[in-house]
Amino acid sequence: MEALTLTTPALLFSAISLIMLAYTNRFIAYAATIRSLHDKYLIKKDSVLITQIQNIKQRLYLTRSMQIFGISSLLLCVLTMFLIYIEQQIIAVWVFGIALILLITSLAFLIWEIQISVKALEHHIKDIENN
Transmembrane residues, as ranges (predicted)? Predict the structure, then answer.
């Protein structure tokens, strides 16, 4: 196995940064949707709104988990670079491996969140098709 160099974990910086930007945009969109649903619910206490609120709440928590795992991955990439710098190669390899697992976990949560989002949109499509 080749030695881990400073450039290897650094390569993930741009990818993780773009992923975090996408996650943050999702979070902001959910916040706006929640505020809108809240206002609608205060006007008309509809069971459909309750279902939408529950759905968005689940997606919001998944997005939070995605962000936590993504940030943790980035943090461990930085730690990996520090460990390489102080010549702790074996520990650096293990920390970098954990960083990759955290990034994979973050992306798996993204897939789960997308599945829930599609189901929510399917309800709207079904409503349009029925009318």
Answer: 12-34, 66-85, 91-112
Q: How many domains does the chain have?
A: 1
Using the structure block, give the residue that is written with the tokens 């949707």.
33
User: Is residue 99 a contact partner of residue 49, using CB atoms and an 8 Å limit?
Assistant: no
Q: What are the tens digits of pLDDT across the range 80-102?
A: 999 999 989 999 999 999 999 99
| Domain-embedded: residue 31 | yes
Residue 75: partners with Cβ closer than 8 Å, 6 or more residues away: 99
Residue 68 inside a domain? The answer is: yes
With 0.85 as the threshold, say if the pTM is over it. Answer: no
**131, part of any domain:** no
Among 3-7, 40-44, 58-62, 124-128, whose mean pLDDT is lowest? 124-128
Domain span including residue 81:
7-125
Using only C-alpha atoms, what is the Rg of the chain? Answer: 20
